[in-house]
Design goal:
The chain is mainly alpha-helical. It is about 40% helix and about 5% strand.
């Protein structure tokens, strides 16, 4: 199966003096591009690029993990200190990581808007419809993260044709979500008919999955369940037998994957995943950032014999366990005694010398999350008994890894009393169980902080009591100073 290759491209807007009036050789301008089907596909490919993890300018993990109760910055003290300011909620508007993700994701929005609005009349109808649908998914993806990080933000749905178009006031969170919903609904409709089978491209399932999540975040549970029903009707997704297969390069784009961001190593221009270096231990030429806290370990269940939920050792390197190369893990490798495994490849795949050039994809959404969204939506809708079904599917897969993974001690038999099926139908009790299940199932996949915020003030302040977090001040991060400086429609 072909994979979409993430490339960037530069579109020049035109000349500003006589000596620049001549056509540049080998470079497209905005007046000569967007003319053919090939141009349309190139422009679409460029709109995918900002979501990749080719460098630190996509620090989604900083906001999803480090800002949460699951992790600290890690690394050497003083290295990338602006991340630690985010971890401790002592940041200011000029924090570089606020600027990184703002600029990166608005660049993605800008490129998506170009695809939707700039295509010329010679682009075929089918290609026009397809690339516009995928671009709407991408725009929704970028806005979903921006609205959850920053709250009220400028809503831009057309290209900037003039300098004045850059000055856009902020829109309400509700209006941003309304645009996300519209984009995803339209994308799903088109992609159900003419979607691509190329790995890494947006699909009907990806649009419906993100739509279900967007509805969940707004507590529109009926709409979330409807989107999940439509996703299930595609018949394209199921859980993998072994949890860890979702985070192995040789198992990418599998039946559980709903949308994952592709990376390739050894390419020019660079297309590798740099998270492999950011999260690896120092002796592997890594920076050992995004270090798990012990409180995250405490969220995992174990039976009376001390056998833990296998997702713990699939996800985290810890004392007494093994690292991804098969050697014993040394807690001295990390400031907390723990390291993330999910985004790190063994040295026989990516050696020390090219550690930052990984070909491991980032899985944004898996079918396991859809099941947990369904469980939450059903429980919050007053249907706790029905919520047990998708919840227990996730737990069953986790414990039955012992039946499918020969590398597990005790392979062939599920340990007695480990991860038993949930039976309670008390809504409040089940709510806490689902939240815990979501935390361990999706741990270090860059979702935790956003979940904490939507759970509300008391939950967030309790879990972040070790920091300076105050819900009224820190529910959303401030718009970066660089944007305030250039956009005269934003009040400081």
């Amino acid at each position: 199966m072909k994979r979409i290759i993430v490339l960037s491209m530069i579109l020049l807007a035109g000349a500003c003096s006589d000596f620049l009036d001549e056509d540049l050789q080998g470079i497209y301008t905005s007046s000569t591009f967007y003319k053919t089907d090939d141009h349309a596909m190139l422009a679409l490919t460029a709109a995918y690029q900002p979501m990749s993890f080719t460098n630190i300018r996509n620090p989604l993990w900083v906001f999803g993990d480090v800002a949460s109760d699951d992790a600290i910055k890690g690394g050497f003290a003083g290295d990338q200190s602006e991340i630690e300011f985010i971890e401790q909620f002592t940041y200011t508007r000029d924090n570089g990581f606020l600027q990184h993700i703002w600029q990166r994701y608005y660049e993605g929005i800008s490129r998506a808007n170009d695809v939707i609005h700039r295509l010329g009349p010679d682009v075929s109808d089918e290609v026009r419809e397809l690339v516009a649908a995928e671009a709407k998914f991408l725009r929704a993806y970028y806005y979903f993260h921006l609205v959850n990080i920053f709250g009220e933000i400028p809503l831009k749905t057309e290209p900037a044709y003039a300098a004045s178009d850059l000055h856009v006031p902020v829109s309400s969170v509700d209006n941003i979500y309304a645009q996300i919903e519209t984009d995803l609904q339209q994308a799903a409709e088109v992609l159900s008919e003419i979607g691509s089978t190329q790995a890494g491209r947006a699909t009907e399932g990806a649009a419906l999955g993100l739509l279900a999540k967007a509805y969940l975040f707004q507590e529109n549970y009926a709409a979330s369940l409807s989107a999940i029903n439509d996703l299930d009707a595609t018949g394209n997704y199921t859980l993998m037998d072994v949890y860890s297969h979702n985070f192995m390069a040789c198992k990418q784009n599998n039946a559980e994957s709903i949308f994952e961001i592709q990376h390739l190593s050894g390419q020019d221009p660079f297309m590798g995943n740099s998270l492999n270096q950011w999260f690896a231990p120092q002796h592997e030429n890594g920076y050992f950032f995004n270090a798990p806290r012990e409180e995250f370990m405490d969220a995992f269940e174990h039976n009376e014999n001390g056998i833990y939920d296998p997702r713990l050792d699939y996800s985290i390197g810890r004392e007494g366990g093994t690292w991804i190369n098969g050697e014993e893990f040394d807690p001295a490798w990390s400031r907390t005694g723990f390291l993330v495994k999910k985004h790190v490849q063994p040295l026989d795949e990516i050696p020390v010398g090219t550690k930052a050039d990984s070909d491991l994809n980032y899985v944004f959404m898996r079918y396991a999350e859809i099941l947990l969204i369904k469980a939450e939506a059903l429980n919050e809708s007053g249907q706790p008994a029905e919520a047990l079904i998708p919840l227990n599917k996730v737990r069953t897969r986790a414990r039955e890894s012992f039946l499918h993974d020969e590398t597990l001690d005790g392979f062939g038999t599920v340990p007695e009393g480990l991860l038993p099926g949930i039976t309670t139908t008390d809504q409040a009790e089940l709510r806490n169980i689902i939240r815990r299940e979501r935390r361990v199932e999706l741990g270090f996949e860059f979702h935790r902080f956003f979940d904490m915020m939507r759970y509300g003030q008391s939950y967030a302040e309790e879990r972040l009591s070790h920091t300076n977090f105050v819900y009224g001040e820190h529910r959303y991060f401030p718009i970066p100073q660089s944007e305030v400086d250039i956009n005269n429609q934003i009040n400081n």
